[in-house]
Amino acid sequence: MRVLLLLLCLSCSRVTIPAWSEPLVRSPAEAMPARPSATAPEAPTFPEYLELASAGPALWFVPRPGLREVTIAVVSRRGEDGAHPRGLVRFMVRQLAQSLERSLPFARIAGSATVHDAHLELSVPPSELPAAFASLAKALRGAGPDPSIVNLGREDLVADLESLGDRPRDRAWRSGLSALHREGVVAQAENARAFDAAAVVRCRNDRFAPEDTLIAVTGNADAAALETLFAANFRDWAPTASRLDAPRLEAAEEPPPSLALRTESSLAHVLYVQPAPAPSDRDRVIFELLVDLLGGTFRSRLNGSLRETHAYTYGAFASVVDHDAADLLAIRADFAPEDTRNAITEFYAQLTRMRREPLTSAEIALGRTRVWSHIRWQLEGPSLARLLARSWSHGIAWTELEERYRALRDLTPERALEVAEQHFSAERGLTVISGPSAALRGWTVARTSDGFEVRE
Fold first, then answer.
1. Which of 53, 58, 83, 331 could form a disulfide with 244 if both were Cys (CB 3.0 to 4.6 A apart)?
2. Which pLDDT belongs to residue 323?
3. Nearest Cα residue to 87 out of 119, 121, 114, 116
4. Selected residue with higher pLDDT from 381 and 32
């Protein structure tokens, strides 16, 4: 060993470093690799699905051998539509999710409800598919969740609803929703106190009736094996004898232009909320693109003005929300009390600009890239099952949904402006301003023929 080390040292001693003459590059910029040429983004291509069962409930499958897990999305096309006390459908789904978590500790489970649907989602290893289907059948068709667990969940829900008044953002949200509609559209603590195990089972049997339910499966699974599991657990699921009718949720004829809520916070929180087109509306995809350009990123119009030009806020954020009461456009921002009036004035100017000033072709291209990138991310991963289930619950053919996204390649500034004029409606919008007295004194908001105006 010593001989080898000696020979190694002698060989290394002969290595010399060449004298320096010139740098390999003349500048740091020259050392940077060439930027790849920009390519136009491709429109999303939706995969075909296999319809393994057409009804009672339906079963759809998209094979994805490259994924490590199998995702199962169970959706009912009946959600928080008012047939049950407000908030019960969402509470019921959460109880089902908790039951599944106890029987499937290896699974990732989520569940919720909107005004359109109720949904559960499970991600499991392929080897656990038999256990997942058996647990799903028990959750949807069995005796119901453990009453003691339901009681604990109800206590937590009541406590959470009673504490909303202490949280300015939640208080603003609930106040805005209530003002937009003629009747209560938010869950109340007094209603939640009646959410017991029997109410959960009644709600489950009505919402997840087999004729209103789809099971969408994506991932590394075999179609024949899925059909066998489905037949063993769901084939004899009989339709319900009756369904509860949902009352029609009516919007207020003209909500107040603004609400002021005094709080002890150091910043003023501003929430703008208005109805948005439903997912089934043909304008919905274009509207999502417009909202992204208005306030979806730091490069959006709102942030270009409120953040970059005026430094009124760290960021304004706009999104389309499928809430458990309605489809909504929600825009949020926080301002210093002394900047609130000027910031809201500029905020309204940007809303008016969306309805009056056409987007540039560059803006449309940016929005299209972001929307396409998001939908392609959903198509290529576990979110595909949920997207497939949502298209079914909203009554949109899978190929039709694909075409709506692909049609963005031909979106013109004139068509975008047409959608903006129709759906960014000042007549239906409402601003909730919560904050210290210094942010609220000396001015008010008025609705005009062209939008909103800040007045003395």
1. 83
2. 78
3. 114
4. 381
